[in-house]
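Side project, low priority. Logging it here so it doesn't get lost.
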Amino acid sequence: MRKYEKMMINLVDGLDKHLEPEKKILLLEECGRKCIRDKGERFIQNANELYKKSNDVMDFFEKFSKVYDSLHVNDDEVAVIYPKCLCPIINKIPSEKISSSYCNCSRGWVKELFESATEKAVEVFLDESITKGNTRCKLRVVIGK
C-alpha cells in the first residue's frame, strides 16, 4: 500500500473518531463537490445544456442516461451505479480497510453534478457501497421541486 493510501485511511478514521456525523458528512461531501468542479466542469456544462433541452427532470434523466453509463432510470427511481469504486484516491485500497464514511465524497460529487445541471436541490442516498461490503455502489438521486 502506498503512503498516500495509508494517509487517506488514517484521515477518514480520524474524521470518524473526532467529528460529529453531520460535520463529517458535510466535509466529505464538499470534497466530492470540489472534485467534480475541478475535473468535471465540461461534464457539468454538457449536463446543464441537456437539461435545458429537456421537457422535465425525468426527461433529462432519460436523455442523460444515454451519455452517462452509470446513470440508471427505472420507473421513478434514478440512481448512479458503479460496479467498482472509481475514486482514483482510494480505489486501490481494499474495501475493508477504508471507512464507508468516505463514500460521502461520492454523494457530494453526484449532488454537485445534478444540482449544477438542473439548478434544483438534490438529495443523494447511499443505498449500497463497496466499502460496506456490497458488490457495487448505488447512489439514489432525488431532485427537489
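Brief comment: The helical segments are 3-18, 21-39, 41-52, 57-64, 104-118.
Revisit when time allows.
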